[in-house]
Amino acid sequence: MHSVQHVFTEYWPHILFVISGVASAAAAIHAAMTKHDVRAAIGWVAVVLFSPLLGAAFYLVAGINRIRKQRVSQQRAHTTIPQEVIHRLLVDDVASVSGAQFSALKTLGDRVSDFKLLGSNSIRLLDGGDETYPAMLEAIKGAQRSIALQSYIFDHDEVGVELAQALIDAQARGVAVRVLIDAVGAKYSRPPIVHMLEKGGVQTARFMRPVIGVRLVYANLRSHRKLLVIDGTHGFTGGMNIRAGFVTAIAKENVTRDTHFQVAGPVVYQLMINFAHDWQFTTQEKLSGPEWFSTSPADFIEEHGVPLRCVPSGPDSTLESTHDMLLGALSVAQRHVRIQSPYFLPDVSLVAALATAARRGVLVDIVIPGANNLKLVNAAMMAQIDQLILTGCRVWRSSGTFDHSKLFTVDGGWSYVGSSNLDPRSLRLNFELDLEVYDRALAQQLDARIDATISSAERITIRSLMRRPFLLRLRDKIVWLASPYL
Asked: Which of helix, strand or coil describes residue 260?
């Protein structure tokens, strides 16, 4: 024993050096072999090699995506639509409803998303909080069996309290209610709305809530999904949080604009599967049975319905699903691509795809807010936007108040809407939920909305960018360097 202590005392620097070297080598090898993004791999290898032992320890805590492994190991489908209904609803031909060029995109979606493209859905565009919250409130008050609500932010304000009270009243009359709020998003609510809900008997959970610091290292992984499912048969999804700032009567001239969508048909089943999966991951409670998932074929049939599917994405088995769908959409575009995004920071491959579409002769219109609620993101956007303008894309800054809408349409026949922004956080870090829609009517409705925004917007040109003061452009470039972490 004495000799062991003597050896350690005498040679501890050498022992520490060997341990540090082995740990650093193991961590660097793991990063190089498991990271799919070369930038992430290079970054972690550099941290590990240039910060001996500490770098390896940090990688062990924050660099290994255990969340992905956990969620992949769970069974996604808690239950399934009856097979006889599936056969009636499967959509094979999208050329007749959207255009011949979208057949290849449908095949891509079949391979990217866990969900089939199913027909017989209805989808209704809701314009801002003025239309969305009353429709949600009416649906909650009419619920008979179950309510599942998920949001990034559920604010404790006039709108949030009204919706929370409706959920409490539904619970009191015997409706099963579950509310899931992101742990980071919940911090926007002062005081937290979860206290009111829990006091009222509503089962409420926070996604990725730290438990004695265990999940603290995953605070950067957030659920940005927004959905509401009533009785397993009709629902809402899109990009809107629950906040009074989206209501004109409350926010007045400072109202935030946005879009949301009311849906019915088999896509609601897919929404509910998404919620049940996230709820089980968070609480370990499995939601199943007719209370949450209707088994009546009549609940899935919408006359003259449209083909829809959910496309979930996030740092799990669905990593880069939305990224792949957008690349595919840009590759099949023939005439016109319209994009509206509050936070527009596409990565190199998306920039290349947009540039290629523009150079092929496709008219590419990109609308970003003139007034942005995140100043650092706005600075990064301004630093990067010249890459698109130089290749022929048209970029517009909207007038008026901040617009939080996330809209993507191609050739007036295909739409992609939901919670995803076109930035690194949405495309790689957040858990997002979007809808792929094959319907000319909705695409043209969204096109008209975007075109109306463009009609009063300012077009950004290389000349207008160069007229900005040098120090301002330098600041934007410095912020842009940190854009993957904004």
From this structure: strand
Q: Is 200 exposed, middle or buried (0-12, 13-18, 19+ CB in 10 A)?
A: middle
Domain coordinates of the chain in residue numbers?
2-64, 71-99+115-309, 321-485
Task: In whole angstroms, give the CA distance from residue 140 to residue 170.
Answer: 7
User: Identical fold at 71-99+115-309 and 321-485?
Assistant: yes
Neighbours of 111 (CB within 10 A): 8
User: 357-395: per-residue pLDDT in tens?
Assistant: 999 999 999 999 998 888 889 999 999 999 999 999 999
DSSP 188: G
**Helix, coil or strand: residue 392:** coil
Q: What's the pLDDT score for residue 217?
A: 47
- What are 420-473's pLDDT values in tens digits? 999 988 888 899 999 999 999 999 999 999 999 999 999 999 999 999 999 999
Is the CB of residue 435 less than 8 Å from the CB of residue 123? yes
**Measured between alpha carbons, how far is 385 from 280 in angstroms, rounded to an integer?**
41
Q: What is the CATH number of domain 71-99+115-309?
A: 3.30.870.10
Phi, psi angles (nearest 5°) of residue 119:
-90, -170
- What is the 3-state composition of the chain as percent helix, strand, coil, each rounded to the nearest 5? 50, 20, 30
Q: Answer yes or no: are the C-beta atoms of 328 and 302 closer than 8 Å.
A: no
Helix or strand holding residue 139 (H, E)? helix 128-141
CA distance 404 to 128: 9
Mapped onto helix, strand or coil, the DSSP state of residue 486 is: coil
The average confidence (pLDDT) of the chain is 87
Q: Give residue for tokens 């179950």.
A: 146
241 close to 152: Cβ distance less than 8 angstroms? yes
For tokens 């996230």, the residue is 278
Contact between 284 and 294 (Cβ < 8 Å): no
Q: Given a cut of 50, is residue 285 above it in pLDDT?
A: yes
404: pLDDT strictly greater than 70: yes
Determine the 3-state secondary structure of 224 from DSSP: coil
pTM score, whole prediction: 0.87
Taking a C-beta distance cutoff of 8 angstroms, is the pair 408, 322 a contact?
A: no
Q: Is the peptide bond before 469 cis (omega within 30 degrees of 0)?
A: no
> How far, in Å, CA of 435 to CA of 248, rounded?
27
Q: Enumerate the β-bridge partners of residue 433.
A: 312
Structure tokens, 366: 């990109």
Q: What is the Cβ-side half-sphere exposure of residue 91, based on CA atoms within 13 angstroms?
A: 31
Neighbours of 215 (CB within 10 A): 16
Domain spanning 321-485 has what CATH number?
3.30.870.10
Q: State how far the Cα of 339 lies from the Cα of 337, in Å rounded to an integer.
A: 7
